[in-house]
Amino acid sequence: MLKAAEDRLVSVTNKNITNITLSGEDEVKVGSNITLTTSYSPVDTTTSSILYEVGDSSIIEIVSSNMNQVVVKGKKVGTTFVRAISTDSDGVKSERFYITVPNVMPTSITISPSTTQTISVNQTIQLNATLLPVGVSNPNVLWSSDDKNIAKVSSSGIVTGVSNGTTTIRC
Questions:
Q1: Would the N or C end of the chain have less CB density within 10 A of its end CB?
Q2: Are 82 and 72 a contacting pair, CB within 8 Å?
Q3: What 3-state class would DSSP assign to 111?
Q4: CA 16 – CA 68 distance, rounded (Å)
Q5: Per-residue pLDDT tens for 8-41?
Q6: CB-based contacts of 167: which residues, under 8 Å, 6+ apart?
Q7: What DSSP state is assigned to residue 137?
Q8: Over 63-105, what HEC string results?
């Protein structure tokens, strides 16, 4: 005698994200990148993507992202957030992580060329300023001449000889 076939009910459900967090450094210098790690549960979720957004894109920008991390770059001094967002059938889950782009002041300025320069009247020479540490928030310098009757200097460091004599160019 044949045994009757048995039926089994199979339930298929999504494993949606129930919790999402961001972690990592909360400070990034202008021009530098940091990587934030994204954690979520359950780890075997069926959710296929996490979206990221920033609160103020003039302060930081997203360089790259995936389900497990987001890389952001500092653009200007300030504080804003990165938000990780998961949207699925259970609704929206999100996490904000605040990041500060600090004001980094220069600790030293070096002018090059570093030796005394001799130029003729109406001749020009380019001076360059190097600020340390790397990542100074405002790398602009203000150039000046101690005696503009001898040599003048432009806002970009171009020195022009005006008359015979010696003067000091500063930034």
A1: N
A2: yes
A3: strand
A4: 16
A5: 777 666 787 878 999 999 999 988 999 999 998 8
A6: 145, 146, 147, 150, 151
A7: S
A8: EEECCCEEEEEECCCEEEEEEEEEEECCEEEEEEEEEEECCCC
